[in-house]
């Protein structure tokens, strides 16, 4: 190839045409694969449900079917894949809910989810955010949906009861999660400093944006704010194009303190005065700390604030069971706070 090929207009036009053709073929193949596997899953289910006696021999029949299909079409039709197709149909029995914007590998991950509300939510997010299969697998593995629900100021059970119509993005808080899982930074948990944490985020910005969630775009690191008394530096600045506002992030290694909250409150006020344009919504300040402090959260400007928030981050990916227990503890704390607030309200009344 000539060293000038990349600047040759004819080459560029043909190259783009070939790429578009390949993408179109890939989409057609994916669409055919998804619908074919859905139909195979449906046929297997209907065949198994014809009678109890037939169902009793289902395993043996599936093995025989897999053997014949594999002999003719290859290993894509072994017993494991046929079971995956059957599970795919069981998870998505209505064909119209199966979007060809996702691949078979996406649906193979989604079909493993037992919670229909979570499955539907992950499906929609994967479509809207153009998640790769690997990204979808990570979001499921780190309980993205469950963390969003547990972060809301209402019990998870109450939220899930409304899951079919639940908008997980009503307020700024609904765009944030707790905890954030930053295992991709590969930090030495006993030695890292705030500078290491910040540097790791910048070096893994794409993964951090995925962990942040919907609508976030990176603006600047260590952004300077000038005042008459000196300069201040904000660790990380993002813009959320859905919320239409700046999001300031302050990284803290230790337990959340009143000083951390006061510092972020000042940053937000300065940003509102110096950086925010008339078209922007109010600036959000997010303190990422290694440990929560519910007393500070209850008795500081964090309480009832629509602009200041604090979330915990984890640098090691816990097991699903450990994360579930952690979310359950946080949910109980939120429920207890709500009960206490309601009790205080009744006393005042």
Descriptive overview:
This protein has 349 residues and is α/β, with parallel strands linked by helices. Helices cover 53% and strands 13% of the residues. The chain has 14 helices and 6 strands. It has helices at 9-48, 52-56, 58-73, 79-91, 104-110, 116-128, 133-141, 144-151, 156-160, 194-203, 205-212, 258-274, 294-298, 320-348; strands spanning 180-181, 216-227, 230-240, 245-251, 284-289, 308-314. It has a 6-stranded mixed sheet, sandwiched between helices. Strand 3 (230-240) and strand 4 (245-251) form a beta hairpin. It is globular, with a radius of gyration of 25 Å.
Supply Rg: 25 Å
Q: Please report the total strand number as a whole number.
A: 6
Order of strands, widest sheet: 1-6-5-4-3-2
Strand residue content:
5-15%
**Uncertain residue segments:** 154-167, 345-349
Tell me, what's the shape? globular
What is the helical fraction, as a range of percent? 40-55%
Mean pLDDT: 83
The CA-CA distance between the termini, in Å, is 81 Å
Order of helices and strands: HHHHHHHHHEHHEEEHEHEH
Structural class based on helices, strands and sheet pairing: alpha/beta
Number of helices: 14
Main sheet attributes: strand count, strand direction, barrel closure: 6 strands, mixed
Itemize the secondary structure elements and their pairings.
Layout: H1 9-48, H2 52-56, H3 58-73, H4 79-91, H5 104-110, H6 116-128, H7 133-141, H8 144-151, H9 156-160, E1 180-181, H10 194-203, H11 205-212, E2 216-227, E3 230-240, E4 245-251, H12 258-274, E5 284-289, H13 294-298, E6 308-314, H14 320-348
Parallel strand pairs: 1-6, 4-5, 5-6
Antiparallel strand pairs: 2-3, 3-4
